[in-house]
Each structure stands twice: as C-alpha cells, then as structure tokens.
Specification:
CATH architecture of the largest domain: 3-Layer(aba) Sandwich
Number of strands: 12
Low-confidence stretches: none
Mean pLDDT: 93
Order of helices and strands: EHEHEHEHEEHEEEHHEHEHEH
Number of domains: 2
CATH topology of the largest domain: Rossmann fold
Number of helices: 10
Shape: globular
Largest sheet: 6 strands, parallel
Radius of gyration: 19 Å
CATH superfamily of the largest domain: HAD superfamily/HAD-like
Distance between the termini: 20 Å
Structural class: alpha/beta
Length: 265
Amino acid sequence: MKGKIFLIDLDGVLVGDKKLNPIKGAKEFLEVLRSKGIPFRVVSNNSTRPPSEIVKILREKGLELEEERFVSPLKVLPKYLRSLSIKRVLLIGMEPVKRYLMEEGIEVVEDHQVQGVVVAQDRSLDFHKLRLAVSAVFLASAKIIPVNLSRIVKDDDGLYFPGAGSVALMLKHATNYPDELPNLGKPSKEFIDYALDGLEGEEVYLISDDIYTDLLGAKALGIKTIFMTTGKYTRDELKRANFEPDLTFDSLEELMEHFGLKSPF
C-alpha cells in the first residue's frame, strides 16, 4: 500500500442514504486506513449541509471522521464567491446552507436583483424559486454558480431526482447564459487539488459509486478509478457509459481484500 492515496466518496460508498447511515464495513475501512497510516480524505458533493454538520452527524452514526479529512464543495464556495466580488445571492438550496453562507458574510435573499444564483440540492424547489432564478440571470445578469455538476441523485426510496448540475444547466439553457458553468465539486481539478493538499503519495485512487459525475472526470485527470456497486449504479451502467474503471467492487470488504488490508469482518 506504500505510496497510495485514497479519495473516498461519501454517498454510496461509506453511507447508504440521505440520513447518512453507514454502509456495512465503512467504519472498519476507515479504521484500517488510519491504523496503517494510509493517507485518505472523504470527499462529497453533498450540498445540503455545511461540512461541520455532516461530520457531526457521521460521528453520531458511529462513523468517526475528523473534519480536516472531509472535503465538500461548500468549503470552496464562500472563497469562490468572494473571488468574484459576489456579496448578494439567490439560493436554490436548503436552510442549513443559507445559514452557512450568511455566517460567511454572504447576503442571501429571495429576490431576482442579485449578483449570483447559487444552485445546491433543494428539496423545496418550486415554481417561485425557479422564476426568481431565471429572472435573476435573464434580467439582472446574475452568475449561475452550481455547487457541483451532479446530474442525478438517488433518494432513500429508490427514486431519482435532478442534481444541482442538471438544475444549473436548465437555467443556462433557459436564459441562453453564455458562460461556462464552474464546477466547485468533485472531480474538478480545483476540488481534487484542494482534497489532496498535504497528502503524500504517488498513486491517487478515487473510490465512487458515480460513473458520470466522479469517475469519468477523475480518469481524465489521470486519477485511478474504483467503481463501487453499493450506490446508485449497477455494473450494467458501465456498458451504457462505455466506461471501464481500473477496478470494480461490490463491497468494501472486497476492496480491502484486493489491497491486502487486514479485514476485521
């Protein structure tokens, strides 16, 4: 295992639902990585809660994780907004994200007269919010700022809904928005560089259940890809995506055995 770094997706790899309940073997997997001194970070495109709240919930669920080992786009978002001198935004997103942005000095309003439209996961997205968002971009030249470019999200009941990236692309299409949409989440180079900061190793692996959002982009960056079938996609989706990851596993136990990590199962 010398020289390897693991970037581990949260949803679909370590947790199995939106309540952040750990998947079998997740606790043991992280414990083994720590005990062997293998550098890793848990990476997530979760845009429903600030990073500190997610880590707190994971600990309450029995999944020990230090906040410095957890990276999400919300860690990058305030800095990105400040780099564009954006101080007033309309948010498509959940209440905890609104509080987080306001704590970071960003004014969050329900008005189309804003400098930016921040697009995160929003379970209360309705016509009123969409009307304001389209008007903000079309009438006030607001920037469209997706927290990530996630296409699709699996809900706890097995059904799916559009990710932040899909909603942002809809706004872009509706308003004939000319700019390229930024990607503050994985696997953009900026996000990966942030996640790898301070870690030493020669071979980086991204472990994820998401072929389209994560693994395709990671491979383009020269990162080794590990596909887990424990999340939203089955092996059949690899054929539809015409994508061949470096490795594929059906459980964390299989992954640990492959890399010669002592399994506590």
